[in-house]
Amino acid sequence: MSKQKKPAGGLNIIIVGCGKVGTTLVEQLVKEGHDITIVDKNAKKIQELSSLYDIMGIVGNGASFSVQQDAGIENADLIIAVTESDELNLLCCTLAKRVAKCSAIARVRTPDYSTEASYLREKLGLTMIINPELEAAIEATRILCLPTALEVNSFAHGQAELIKFKISEGNMLDGMSIQEFGRRGIANVLICMIERDGEVYIPWGDFVMHQGDVLSFVAHRKTVKSFMQKFGLKTKQVKNTMIVGGGKAAYYLANQLIAMGISVQIIEQNKARCEELSILLPKAIIINADGSDEEVLFEEGIENVESFIPLTGIDEENIMLTLHAKQVSNAKVITKITRTNFKNVINNLDLGSIMYPQYITSEAIIAYVRAKNASKNNHIQTLYQLCDSRVEAIEFSVEEASAVTNKAIMELNIKKGVLISFINRNGRIIIPTGQDFIQVNDTVMIVTTQTGFNTILDILE
Q1: Nearest-CA neighbor of 419 among 203, 262, 265, 219?
Q2: Structural domain boundaries of the chain?
């Protein structure tokens, strides 16, 4: 069964593995007009997804040459392998690279392989090796370094950050308009998004902020702390953390935190895993106990920890543990959620910062797909999908003169719901005014309530 040629404007993409990440990718990439074929050994999953999204499904082993042929590997632009097995993912991509000219992306989560990711990518000719647990750990570490933040997203190779936080009772931002903030704020800070009662706003000058609003601002990394301090927000990184669950995510996170000088204790029920972690993380305190037991948590000092992160494999347990921690302590909490259903319920619970590892994976892959599908001279550097994918923050590199370059921003006919948040010019972060302009070789970050932008030109009407 050979596959049709790619549709106009879209790519032929084969996704091997129909788990949570595979399903998230299908949902996003179908929306963006790509021709998708899924491959999985589980016939029921193939049936469910292919009927739900009107895509082609192949039941079989994605590392089999005949299965890849059935999936149309000869005409594929990209193969994405996201099965539960790192080895299978690498084998799928290696085989595809031998028999076709497509790009290849593999999900690889094992620490042994992750340390060799750049070597494997180069030697196997892969476009990308992505590790959701490691990426989630990096994200969690950024948050724990700035505990008032609900999210910290990094741009311009770490030079600029998009920070999300909630305006608390009594905060001086309550009742302040964006215009007044501009007069009283710090240079090089831009409020680019406000969430209120389930709605998302790109705020205008007379927009008034209120207690309970979730506010996102972009700033140079060095400006973030002084801005937050000025508006009474805590900026000191936590000194210690308690992690429940000792899986891969816990290992990666503990490794990151120890390197930052943060004390780590991990509560894990499996004795053999505790012994492994003791060798892998000699500076962490590893406790062999049931982390879902209230008495255990109390004995290990949950009431006094500065941060608490449940990383069990069960979403419901993570949620209950977070709610318990918020009840008995003042800890900064981060909740890992793997399922994407019941989002409305989850968003109405006070779970602190929420991490969805499969979205971290899909964001990186979608950024690559859009860049591949667009002009060769307008690359997407970074892409984050925010507010349940209703908002996108995208950083484009501008590599040739076009309709957006060398004109004052106020002269550009920019679409509604699009905000140019910063211009990165040779490492200097510029928060733009109407008089600023975009030059060739800049990178430009936009925030938009419209989705699917492939190039910087998409910001124009």
Answers
A1: 203
A2: 12-130, 137-230, 240-355, 360-459
